[in-house]
Here is the input.
Amino acid sequence: MRTKSRIFLLSLTTAFFFTSCYRATKDMSGNAKMYEPAMTEEMAIEDMPMVDPEAGEIEPHNTESYDIIKENTFQSPLDHPLSTFSVDVDYASYSNTRRFLMNGNLPPKDAVRIEEFINYFNYDYPAPEGQAPFSIHTEMTACPWQSEHRLVQIGLKGKDIPKEELPPSNLVFLLDVSGSMDAPNKLPLLKSAFKMLVNQLDNDDYVSIVVYAGASGVVLEPTSCDEKSKIINALDQLDAGGSTAGAEGLELAYKLAQEHFRPEANNRILLATDGDFNIGPSSDAQMQRLIESKRDAGIFLSVLGFGMGNYKDSKMEAIADNGNGNYAYI
Here is the structure.
């Protein structure tokens, strides 16, 4: 089933489909704050392991992680007549699995979430009529592997809202610029995707940029999208390097979103990362409580995943679910 959730930024969906510890040493038009990396270059060299030059090329270490998928048993509708469906659909698993196949590899079995494969495609269901927020469509056919059984597909179609009728947006780009993002399919792709998004925004939308690596910092204070060149210039200046102070960056992004909260707007943080998200002094439980409390206050959190090798799918999906947002793999 593919559903359209709450009123969500149309241009963000476009960016989804088409497509560290950091030190701000470049000129950001007066908007960058200086912050130090977690270690100096000399310290990093001292800590590097010695490699035998005759040992040959070392295989890259894969630390990707996925939650274990527990398959549901069949339930009798006579005993369990009700089912719950989420309207904030994710489809990251399809793009991520496609990445494995295009590289000539089979994906880990827990990376394959069937519902996200189904969610990825548009089924052209008729739009709801009148004031109804959504419509329901059902199809039934014989089960291929058990002919006496029947399979039922239930499709939910949300109301289409013209772009000009969408509320304005107050967006905080929370961008991972740690060392793990220093790869062609990570930070450069991130910049390209977010510049595409910025060019889709309207003049009454606002964007701010927070980055995190060994420390976090505000690269761009809230800026109207009638100054798109200023926002794009800030994105162009980003470089990757250092460790990953993810929790600190998240707290700073929420602080900025709260300070410039617009009651009539789509107040949302867009977290872009490879998922190698070190919590720092906070625990997973504390971070979850923070995300849930801000969600209840009207600040939502969506997640965009990038890269491979150290991709932390399980953590990113949980963050988006707790933040009442969407999760996609770019």
In short: Residues 141 and 147 are 10 Å apart (CA to CA).
